[in-house]
Amino acid sequence: MPPRNLEKCVYVTEADQKDELEAVIEQNQPAKQPPTKIVWRNVIWMIYLHIAALYGVYLMYYCKWQSWIWFAVTYGMSGLGITAGAHRLWAHRSYKAKLPLRIVLAIWNTMAFQNDVIEWSRDHRVHHKYSETDADPHNANRGFFFSHVGWLLVRKHPEVRAKGKRVNIDDLLADPVLVFQRKVYLPAMIFTCFFFPSLVAWYFWGESWWTAFFTVGILRYTLVLNATWAVNSVAHMFGNKPYDREISPVETLSVAVAALGEGYHNYHHTFPQDYSASEFGWGRNCTTAFIDFCAWIGQAYGMKKISPEMIKRRMERTGDGSTGFGYTNPPKKLD
């Protein structure tokens, strides 16, 4: 594993905390909620998907050992397409990437099948700016099921649409990689998410096409999907708040493991500019390890980092007194 490349990081100042993506949450006035409109197409798709994934779990017992390894590899690829790509690079601009890395991340993001990067990042910016209000696409105040998957089964709240139009995404629309991804998204997604992983297993080591499709295709996709959803649900409800006790997001170790380092959510919502999305380096954060590796080979640069001193001051000022998965007194150098 390469060194953390801390000398390449750009430390964020307290003034930077007031910059892009950080805004005062608008408090909604009490109002009559619009009727919930169920999107039955999505309901049927999600029911089928999870039944098919359970069948994939059964078929995993009959997979060849190469398919188990390929399953883990494709899980990591599609997961990083969300965490290192859509989330940390494009939604938060917490680091910069050269063209080859942007292309790779866009392909892996397409494999994850969670909408194109422009739409995903726009919704995520709305989520941060209007967290836990009606404008939040997966408002945790509407319950665990809604914040996990229910928000995809109903029409968006009018406030989500209204506030989404006001979020600046000019930087996303100016990236030719993202514009091209959006243009070819549907056929590219079908191929990279479901057929490419299955074809590799079938062609290179003779895995049954049926088994490959339901394991490295359907099951892998469903698990990545639920790991991402868990950041919106579990990591907004079950855990502690070492950095800001007044916000909903919490520190959740299980989500951090499943979502490749995205479960340190109280930290992330307190310091959204940090490229690590946590107080930890690659020792406990797979996505940070990947970004650091990319920096080591010259593909990532300009990583933004919060200083240990600022972290400590914030914990003392607004934390709930717990240590979470971090430190009461952050070390001089984060591992």
From TrEMBL:
Tree of life domain: Eukaryota
Which CDD domains does the entry mention?
Answer: Delta9-FADS-like
The question of whether Nucleus is a record keyword is answered with no
Q: Which compartments does it reside in? A: Membrane
Gene Ontology, cellular component aspect: endoplasmic reticulum membrane
The alphabetical list of record keywords is: Fatty acid biosynthesis, Fatty acid metabolism, Iron, Lipid biosynthesis, Lipid metabolism, Membrane, Metal-binding, Oxidoreductase, Transmembrane, Transmembrane helix
Cell membrane as a keyword of this entry, yes or no, is no
What are the recorded GO MF terms, alphabetically? iron ion binding; stearoyl-CoA 9-desaturase activity
**A biological process from GO:** unsaturated fatty acid biosynthetic process
Protein topology in the membrane: Multi-pass membrane protein
- Name what cofactor the protein needs: Fe(2+)
Q: Where are the transmembrane segments?
A: 43-62, 68-90, 184-205, 211-231
UniProt domain Fatty acid desaturase: residue ranges: 68-273
> Domains: what does the record tell us?
The histidine box domains are involved in binding the catalytic metal ions.
Question: To which protein family does this belong?
Answer: Belongs to the fatty acid desaturase type 1 family.
How is this protein named in the record? DgyrCDS5296
| Native organism | Dimorphilus gyrociliatus
